[in-house]
Each structure stands twice: as C-alpha cells, then as structure tokens.
Design brief:
Pfam families: RPAP1_C (PF08620), RPAP1_N (PF08621), TPR_RPAP1 (PF25766)
Protein name: RNA polymerase II-associated protein 1 C-terminal domain-containing protein
Structural class: mainly alpha
Subcellular location: Nucleus
Strand content: under 5%
Number of helices: 59
Helix content: 40-55%
Distance between the termini: 142 Å
Strand order of the largest sheet: 1-2
Keywords: Nucleus, Transcription
Number of strands: 2
Family: Belongs to the RPAP1 family.
Largest sheet: 2 strands, antiparallel
Length: about 1250
C-alpha cells in the first residue's frame, strides 16, 4: 500500500480483528499494572473488569468514542457490502435450508450426530431459544421509530501516551462485551429483588466493606459426572489468559458459537453464564469451579440434613432461622458447611484438633464457653442451654478430653485448653472447693474425673507449673485442678504426691516467691497451702512425704504479719494456713519436732496472737488448734513418728497452758469458734496432766476450776433455748468443746458420780438439745435419696456432741442404768467413721449392764442358763470385732494419742460406702439391727477370721451365742420403749429377717439329731416368740400403721446379702429349708408368710403357693398370730395373677388348709368371681369359669365359703366366721351373676344365696 506521493505511510490500513483472536494487550496490562513494591494493585471483585476499564479511561481522559471512526484506506479496496446483518443472516438461513434439502437422510443423520458430539445434547434447545429471542426482537424493532444514524466522521488517530503507573489499560472490547454497539436486546436492565426488613441483618460491629463470603469446595459425588484428579486436570485445562495467543479458526468458531448460545441459554450473572463467558473450555462439573455455584446450589448439593444447633464464637446458640442470614465477616463460616453461620458441636470438636494453633485455641475457647453455660445449667435448671438438655454429662467428658489433649501446648492454645479443663473439673461444681474432710468421688454423677488419664495429665501439670511458661491465671487454674483431683479420692491424692516434681513445683512456684516481692503478681498464693493440707488429710503416706516441703513454709512463721513485706491480710492468711498444715501433720504424729527446733519463733508467734495487735480470729483459732495437737502428741510420746519428737516436760516448760488461759481476756462471748478452740486446748492440757502430772493433775484441774473459765463458760452456754438454735451443726462443736472441758476437770477416781460439778453448765438445756439431735430426721435425710453426697460430713460435729454428752450423762447424778442404756442404744447409731473407739466404749458399757441384778431389779425374767454361761460374754467379741479390725482407719473428730498412731486417713469415705442400707466395708454407722451381728459371723464362719482372734478363754456353743444375741435384742427394745425412744427400735422387717437368720443356721448343715438344731432350743424359741410378739396382728393397734415408711425385707436383707444376692434367692433357700427340716415348726411357718403379702412381688406367692404348694397345708398359723399390722396387707390389692389364682384353687381343692392361709385363698378366689367384690372390674366370662371350677371341684365347705364370703375394701377386715355370715343386697347381684355360669352352677349354689 503506497502513499499518493510515493512515500511509505506512517499508518497503514486498519482492519477490524476477527472475533476470538487474542491481542498482546494482556501482556501490556500485566507489565504496567503494578506499584512501586512490585505487587499487583488491589482489585475488588465487587466491580467487574469492564467497569474498572471504563473508570480508568475516564480518569486518563481517553474515553472511548461511542461511534466507530470512519477510516479511509490509502489504497484501493472493495467497498463494504450494503447488506444489513439481518439480510446476511437471512441469506445464510436460506443457503443452509437449500443445503439441508439437498442432503439425503443418512447425511442429515450424520451431520446431526456430529453436531451433538461437538456441542452436546442440549444444543437443540439452545438453538430453539435463540430463534425465539431473535424473532421476538425483530417484532420489537418493527414497532420502534426508525432513527437515522449520525454521519460517520473521520477521526485522526492520536499517538499513544505512556501509561501511568498503576493504571490498567483496557484492551479492545470483546464482541460479547457490553457497549453501545451491542444490539438493543442485549442491553442490561436494572432489576431489584423484593426484600423485607427480616431479610436485612445489621451487625453492630460490621465493617464498612465486608469481605466476600467464603465458599467451601464440596467433594465430588456420583451426580457430578466425570471428574478429573487435580494432577491430570492441570495438564488438560488452562485458563484463557494462559492459552496461546492464536487459536485455530475452527476452535475460534466453536468457542464463539458456544458463548453466543450460552448467552441466550442462561440468564446473565448465573453460574452457568459465568462459566461459559470466562471459562468456555472448562467442563460443567470441574471441582475447581464449585465456587461459582453460589449458596443455594451448595445447599441443594449438600442435602437437607443440616444440624440445627450452631454456636457463635462466644458459645451462644444461634437460632436456625438466623444462621443462614448472618454476614460472613463475623468469622462464623469457617467450617465444612459454609452457607450457615456458626459452628456445630461436631465442627467445634473437629476444629479443636486443627493443625493451626490459633484456630485450635479459638475452638477450645468456644467449647470452654459452652461448658460454662452447661455448668450454670447444672447448678440452676433455669439456665444453661435447653437444646442440650440431657447431654451435659457426655459433653462435659468430651470437652474435658479436648482440653486434656491440648494442655501440653504452648502459648494461648495451652492456656485455652487449661481453661476448658478448669471449667469441666472445678467450675462445674465450684461450690465443692470449700468442702474438706470427705472424699468427693460421688459428687459428680457423670464420673468425669475418673475418666482422666492421670498418668498423662499429672506429669503435664508438673511440667507446666515448673516451667512457669503460661500466664499466671492458667497456672492458678492448674493449681485448682490439682486441688479438685485431691478432693475426689484418696487414691488420686496418693498418685499426685507420687508424681515426680509436682508437689515441689507447686511449693516453688506458688509459695517460694521472692522476698521482697517485686510486684503484686509475685505474691505467694495461700491456696497452695490448702492443696497441701488436702493432700495430707487424704492419707498417712501423703502426710509423711509432705514433711519435707513443710520446712519451706517456716518463712511465714519467722516473719510475723505485722513485719511482713506482704499485705497484712495476705500475711495473716499465709500464717494461718501454715499452722493448719502443721496441725494436720500432727494428727498423724508427724513433724512435732518443729516445735522444739523453731521454739523461739513459735514463742514470738504466741505473744503476737495474744496481743491486741492481732485482730484475726482465724489466726488465733489456728494457733490454738496447733497447741492442742502438739499437747496430745506429748501426752504419749511413744505414739509419734518418730517417737519422742515432743515430750510432756517440754509442754510444761513452754507454758502453753498459761498462754492459752491469758488469751481469754482478748475474747468476747460472741467469738464462739475461738472459745471452742480454747476449751479444747485446755481439755487436752488437763487430759495430759491426768496421765503425766502429779497426783493425776489435781493441781492443774483445781487451778482451772478456781479461775475465770467457769464464769465465761456459764455466760456463753447459758442460752435459754438451745433447742431452737439455727445451724445446730455449727454450734454443736462449741457445746461439745465445753462438755469436753467439763469432763476433763473430773477427778480421776470419781467416774461413777459427783457431789458437785466442776463448774456450772446448763445441763437441762444441753439434754434437751441432744435428745432432739439424736432422734432428728436429719440422720435419715443425710443418707436418703437426693441428699448431697457429702451431707454426712456435716453430721460429724453432731455425732461428736452426742458422744461426749453420753459421757457426761453417765457421771450425772440421777441417771439410772436403764436410762443411760437407752441413750447409749440411741447414740451408738449416730456415730460415724472415726468414732470407733467411742462406739466400742458405748457397746461394752451398755451390754455390760445386762446382768442378773439388772434384770431382776426390773422383774424381767431370764432363764438361769443364761447367767450360768456368763451372760453377754459369748457375744461381746463379735459385737466389737468389726470396730477393731479394718484396713482403713479414719481419724476421729478430735484426735487422741491412739489415733495419731493408727489413723490412715483424716477424711470420711464416700456416702455410698457407709450407707446403712447397704453392705459396707466400714463398720460405722451401725444399722438398727446391729445386735444380730453375732449371727452374721456364725452364718459366715468360713469367710471370716474372727474365730482365729477369739480369746483363749472363749468357749461357747452356737446355741449359747444365739441365746445371748436374742436376749440383747429383747433388752434393747424394752429399755427404749421404757423411755419413749421409738426411733432406734427394730422394725418388723428387721426383726423378721433377724429371726430368719436363726433358722438359716441349719442351711447346708449335716444334722445328726434333731436336738442339735438351734431353733428347737426352748430358750431360743421362747426368745424368738417374745421378739416377734409385738409385730403380730393380735398386738397391733386397731388403726394399722402405714408400712410405706418402713424398709422392706429386700432392703433390710441387702445389708447382710449385699447387692450380688437378691432376697428372693435367700427366700427360696428358706422355703426349701422349711420343707426339709422344719417338721411344721410353728414359728418357722409364720416366717414364711411376710414375703407373700401383697406388698411384695408376685414371685414370692408363686414360689410358695405354686412350686411348694404341698407345704402350704402345714402352715397352721392362726390369723391373730400372723406377723402383720393388719390382715389387709395380705388381702389387698386383689390378686390378678392367673397362676397364683390357680394355685389358690388347687390347694383349696386338695383340702387341708387351715387358719390364715385358708382365708387368703378364699378371699382372692371370691374377689375374682363376684362383681361386688371386684367392683365391676374384670372379665365376667373368666369369673364365671372360675366359679364353675370351684363348684365342680371343691368340697361343700369350700364352695360355701367362696359363695358367702363378703369383705369391704378400705374398712376394717372382717375375720372368719363373721365374713361368711353377713347379709345385704350384695346377694341379689350375685344371684344375677349366676346366669353367666350355667344352669348346673346356678342350681347347686342358688340356695346358698
């Protein structure tokens, strides 16, 4: 192409590029679009690339012309065709139509197949839609006003300017891009969705430009079609920008056709439109393009099963209606199901094991917050998370396990893990932190602590505390976790002490802080000393190992609170806790030598406690408690470990007694707890003086009696109405301390009575108080269903009060032997583990009072044979054996010289192990039927070692042991009834089961003669008759007492049989024994009946009446001798078991039934026949058949009794023969009922009615 003057033109002819061909502008834009840093500029996806390009052009003043320029070629070229686009399309269509008409059917099918292979099966529908759109557009254009186009003008091309940095130069418009040259039908239309206020969620802290909602890439399913692995996919697929700059003409045409067809097939902006526009060569089911499907498509693919309960980052449940509308910038969509805000529990537990520490810490924080809410619901049912009701136990364990798994990590992850553990272990039952003196293994019913892998947890705690790499708050939480584990059980406490460096790390980190402290964060933590105290209370072995760390705590004794570098309150608490730790060690006889080693410092401490400068009652009580403990250790220096660690001469030389007495001047009568500590310390001094002092401590006792103590005791204890004091348990310790001091003032030789008391006490009020405490229902409630598992701990001060009151009552003038025995039989049931020495003393005293003169003075006849065999001596070893021999020895409420050498723990066992209604390893508390315990040892003679420990002089027979046992039971009941103490009296079921034991002594025994059977002994039989007499129908009152409040035989038997052997099995053995050896023994027969009452299961009646029906006729028990409150117990509710009714009928048919068993059989048969007895309930047809069987099989007497039997439910039972002789309208209804039984039956019995 040449210029007119022959020179080469600067710009040649400009040709429009073919659609689909790429240009080099993409490279230019990439090279220019960068900042000084070399990184590409930020591109917001909220603005399309085309819009950004237009904005840049406007900014640079290079706005594109709306009309294409007219270019004049410098060389001749053909003029453009004048044919319009529509004419061109029409010509193409006509040409295609002619070509198709000239093709054969085979050629048409072949072309059709090629098109389908190339463009897919949906091309036919796409073409149809495109044609419809085109035709509708033509109709629209025909209706529009024709506008003449503006004449084309020639534009002189401008030279390209150098682009500015950071500005994106737009490339030439695509044929499918939106522009003014696009056909009118492709113009965009602005559309608005119909929304309501509920569709808009405003979040308080939402940023002005939220991020795009992240979409999760779902895994391919079978419905997704063919998929390609990521490795293969990268080889076959390239993004358009990565393709070569030139494409073949065929490929360009295909791409153009596909994109043009897609524009008509899919609405603009839909996922399919995006894929066809920008990824034309990608398959429809490519996994990497799942992000374009949008939330709705994800939901449809994921399925409808979406968990409804989701949580935000504060652990608060998100309503299901709100979870799909929350914005994405809240951080609640980072989980597998990304269209719903919030995390399910499965998401939280899964992400809590993430490999990203920050994400893992965040999830543990959410789990911790959820656990806090669940813990609040555990304490208060109105709180918590209602959607998780019933799942608290399982979730607690799962959250705890998640925390344990991450507790060894560093940084915030480890801190969050420890916080979650603290919530699940400590915060769950935060009220238990202050509970000391009992194992709390039953405090949580889900047993979360027992599920911990302690072999992993404890070393991790030791490492964390020793390293001090975590925040102090986390270390304090670890300390609280250790304390809760110690509270759980003695076994865990031993493991904690045995864990290497754990105790040493606690002492070093929390107690041995720098002096003076650099800041408040370096202060010692008194709670660490409490952890050591709890460890020492758990076991003797723990206390022994803690004597080493106890040396380090002397720093708090050496520096008194008034001169300490710590705040006064902190220094006082540290000192008080240290003294209490030393007192705990002294309860085992340990660490008493420190009183000698550090005497100078303890002397200064004593002066400070007695001074006006000391205002802490807590510190004074702790100091008095330590003085009392070391005084008891010095009473018998052979009991300490090692021996002679502290001597009585040292106690006297140090003058602790005078120091204690001088402290009284600083107290007011309202300081009850400190007064109690003073009285106990003085009592310990006087008790030691009685053993080690001159003339049994007479001078020491007289000095106290003549001093000021008498007036102060009267002033404090002279309360007008002690019975109505609130918080009996709180004040019981104070009253008991006063009684103990009073008893310690007694002369050693005057233990049988006094002319005048050492000092005055309100004896009448104290007696009334103890009477209420001893018979109060609190004892049953403490072990009842629903009681806190540590409730028996609060009964310990009450048992201590009752124990010392019994000692007081015995030396009081006017207390008779039977009164004291009644008190002893009552109080012995209230003693708890640790009171074994008191129980032995009470039992030996009460049983020792049963002698010939005691019985004769009250006209209670006892066969001489009893006294010939030394009265109660045969059973005394059995009564106290279980109290003396045991592996676990709990320290008493008040320590003694014996306990400091024998106690293995200072904590009460769990409630279940000492429940009176279960067989237990520990002996206390005693059951009401404790007097039958010698029979237990006889029945288990092959399983106990008691017979190996009996004294050599013990030589008694089995019969003599049974005689003495039954006499003790009889005397106990009589003295209790004599003084109106009904609560400790044996119940009917306890008495029945005790007598059953007498007969069961013959079980599995080879008897050579009848005389050897114990139950045939005349004295044994007489005692059993006397024992059972109060519980017969003849002895019962006219108004039967309710049996619902009494324990059943099954409950009573569990005390002896345990949980492994049911009472039903015991009863079957009992019935079998009766069948084999009884020979119709009358009392033996009577004991068969109680389990067959309607109060018990039908199995007992089946076994006796059906399986052993042949022995029923040997039971000749008269009605008045039956063991029951009322005969109604056997009559109502009416028997409904067909098998038992059949057994009643068979025994009645066989004949021979007499007395009570005949009444039972007739009653239940008649009540299953006559409508007036069954109140219209039941099947008349079955009743008629039963009546027919009675009439046809039974004798005349049986038929007459069944026909004429009449009883009214709810009123007093009518006994034979009156129950067969009543008149009334009921006979009319029975005559009418005979019509259902047939003419034969009606004819035979109609005359009876």
């Amino acid at each position: 192409m040449t210029h007119s003057n022959g020179s080469t033109p600067l710009i040649g002819s400009v040709f429009e590029r073919k659609p689909g061909l790429s240009t080099s502008s993409s490279f230019q834009s990439k090279s220019i679009d960068s900042k000084k840093t070399g990184f590409p500029s930020v591109k917001h996806r909220s603005q399309s690339a085309f819009s950004r390009a237009r904005v840049i052009e406007k900014t640079n003043g290079q706005e594109r012309p709306r009309q294409p320029p007219t270019v004049t070629s410098l060389s001749p070229r053909p003029s453009p065709s004048e044919t319009s686009t529509d004419d061109w399309r029409r010509q193409v269509e006509e040409e295609n139509l002619r070509k198709v008409e000239s093709m054969t059917a085979e050629e048409r099918e072949e072309e059709r197949r090629e098109i389908l292979e190339r463009f897919g099966s949906g091309i036919e529908g796409i073409l149809k839609k495109a044609r419809v759109v085109r035709e509708s557009r033509e109709v629209k254009e025909d209706n529009q006003i024709e506008v003449k186009p503006e004449p084309l003008r020639v534009h002189t091309p401008r030279p390209l300017k150098a682009p500015r940095k950071g500005v994106l130069i737009s490339r030439p418009s695509s044929p499918l891009s939106a522009s003014s040259t696009r056909p009118p039908s492709r113009d965009k239309h602005l559309r608005f969705a119909d929304i309501s206020p509920q569709d808009v969620h405003v979040y308080e802290s939402a940023p002005p430009s939220p991020k795009r909602k992240p979409l999760a890439l779902a895994a391919p399913t079978a419905n997704d079609g063919p998929t390609i692995s990521l490795g293969d996919f990268q080889d076959h697929f390239k993004l358009p920008s990565m393709q070569p700059a030139t494409l073949s003409a065929e490929t360009a045409q295909q791409t153009e056709f596909q994109r043009t067809a897609a524009d008509f097939a899919a609405e603009e902006g839909t996922p399919e439109d995006i894929r066809r526009r920008f990824f034309p060569t990608a398959a429809a089911n490519v996994p990497s393009l799942a992000w374009i499907t949008g939330p709705d498509s994800t939901i449809s693919q994921a399925g409808p099963s979406i968990p409804s309960l989701r949580f935000d980052l504060t652990g608060t449940p998100i309503p299901s209606a709100l979870s799909s509308t929350l914005p994405t910038h809240l951080g609640l969509h980072h989980h597998a199901e990304g269209t719903h805000a919030g995390y399910t529990l499965d998401d939280l537990f899964l992400l809590s094991r993430s490999t990203v520490p920050a994400q893992r810490a965040s999830m543990l924080d959410v789990l911790n917050r959820i656990a806090q809410k669940l813990a609040d619901g555990h304490k208060d049912s109105s709180k918590g998370i209602p959607e998780l009701a019933g799942q608290e136990k399982e979730l607690r364990k799962r959250i705890l396990a998640a925390g344990v798994e991450a507790m060894g990590e560093r940084g915030s992850l480890g801190a969050q893990a420890i916080a979650a553990m603290w919530t699940c272990l400590v915060g769950w039952d935060e009220d238990l932190i202050s509970i000391e003196g009992v194992e709390l293994k039953e405090a949580s019913d889900d047993d979360a602590i027992s599920s911990l892998p302690l072999e992993y947890v404890l070393p991790q705690i030791a490492t964390a505390i020793r390293a001090v790499a975590l925040p102090m708050e986390s270390l304090t939480q670890l300390l609280a976790i250790v304390h809760r584990l110690v509270q759980h059980s003695n076994e865990i406490a031993v493991k904690i002490v045995e864990t290497p460096t754990l105790v040493a790390s606690i002492v070093q980190t929390f107690l041995l802080t720098p002096i003076p402290p650099p800041d408040e964060s370096s202060y010692p933590d008194p709670f660490a000393i409490q952890v050591l105290i709890t460890l020492a209370l758990a076991s003797r072995s723990n206390a022994s190992m803690l004597t080493g760390p106890a040396d380090a705590l002397l720093r708090f004794v050496v520096t008194l609170p008034n001169s300490s570098s710590y705040p006064l309150s902190l220094a006082t608490t540290l000192l008080s806790s240290t003294l209490r730790l030393y007192t705990t060690l002294a309860s085992y006889g340990f660490y008493a030598q420190i009183a000698t080693t550090a005497y100078e410092h303890f002397d200064k401490l004593g002066r400070y406690v007695r001074s006006e400068e000391c205002r802490s009652l807590q510190l004074r009580a702790a100091w008095l408690g330590l003085v009392e403990a070391w005084t008891i250790c010095a009473r018998d220096p052979h009991r300490t470990t090692p021996t002679h660690e502290i001597l009585w001469s040292q106690i006297v030389g140090w003058g602790w007694n005078e120091d204690v007495l001088s402290l009284r001047q600083r107290l007011t009568p309202e300081n009850g707890s400190v007064w109690a500590a003073i009285w106990r310390a003085e009592a310990a001094w006087l008790e030691g003086a009685s053993v080690n002092g001159v003339k049994n401590g007479e001078s020491e006792k007289s000095a106290l009696i003549n001093g000021e103590a008498s007036r102060l005791l009267e002033e404090w204890t002279n309360v007008k109405d002690l019975v109505r004091l609130r918080g009996i348990s709180k004040h019981a310790n104070v009253v008991a301390s006063a009684i103990r001091l009073w008893l310690s003032c007694l002369p050693s030789a005057s233990q049988t009575g006094l002319e005048s008391p050492p000092f005055r006490l309100p004896f009448k009020d104290i007696s009334a108080l103890c009477a209420v405490v001893a018979t109060h229902s609190i004892w049953e409630a403490a072990f009842g269903r629903g009681a806190p598992p540590f409730s028996h701990l609060f009964c310990r001060p009450l048992s201590g009060l009752l124990s010392v009151y019994l000692d007081l009552s015995r030396v009081m003038p006017g207390t008779s032997d039977d009164l004291w025995m009644a008190q002893a039989f009552t109080i012995v049931l209230r003693l708890l583990p640790g009171d074994e020495d008191s129980a032995i003393r009470i039992i030996e005293g009460a049983v020792g009072n049963i002698h010939r003169s005691f019985m004769e003075s009250r006209n209670w006849h006892v066969p001489p044979a009893i006294w010939e065999k030394n009265g109660m001596d045969p059973i005394m070893p059995f009564l106290t054996y279980s109290l003396r021999v045991k592996d676990v020895v709990v320290g008493p409420y008040w320590m003694s010289p014996k306990s400091i050498s024998t106690a293995t723990t200072q904590r009460l066992p769990p409630q279940s192990s000492i429940n009176p209604d279960t067989r237990k390893e520990l002996s206390l508390p005693l059951n009401k039927d404790w007097a039958f315990v010698p029979l237990d040892y006889l029945l288990r003679s092959g399983q106990t070692d008691i017979f190996k420990t009996l004294p050599s002089a013990w030589n008694y027979s089995e019969t003599e042991v049974v005689r003495a046992t039954l006499l003790l039971v009889r005397v106990e009941r009589e003295v209790l009834k004599l003084h109106g103490l009904q609560t400790p009296i044996l119940s009917r079921e306890e008495t029945v089961f005790g007598c059953m034991k007498v007969f069961m002594l013959e079980h599995e025994q080879q008897q050579e003669s009848i005389q050897e059977e114990v139950f045939r002994d005349s004295i044994v039989g007489s005692f059993m008759e006397d024992t059972m007499a109060p519980f017969t129908i003849a002895a019962s009152s006219s108004t039967p007492s309710s049996s619902d409040s009494r324990p059943t035989l099954e409950v009573v038997a569990k005390r002896f049989l345990g949980d492994s052997i049911p009472f039903y099995q015991y009863y079957t053995d009992f019935v079998g024994l009766y069948d084999s050896v009884s020979f119709s023994h009358p009392l033996f027969a009577r004991l068969l009946l109680p389990p067959t009452s309607m109060r018990y299961a039908v199995d007992y009646r089946k076994y006796l009446w059906a399986d052993y029906s042949h022995i029923v006729k040997t039971i000749k028990t008269p009605i008045e001798a039956v063991i029951a409150d009322s005969v109604d117990e056997y009559l109502y509710p009416v028997e409904t078991s067909a098998e038992v009714i059949g057994a009643y009928l068979r025994t009645l048919v066989k004949g021979g039934l007499e007395g009570f068993v005949r009444l039972v059989a007739v009653h239940h048969i008649a009540c299953n026949i006559w409508p007036d007895l069954r109140n219209g309930v039941g099947d008349d047809g079955k009743a008629a058949k039963l009546l027919q069987a009675v009439v046809t099989q039974c004798g005349f007497d049986a038929v007459r009794e069944v026909v004429l039997y009449r009883q009214t439910a709810g009123s007093a039972a009518v006994l034979p023969p009156a129950c067969f002789e009543q008149a009334g309208e009921w006979k009319v209804s029975r005559r009418e009922f005979l019509g259902h039984s047939g003419d034969l039956v009606k004819e035979r019995i109609e005359k009876l009615l």
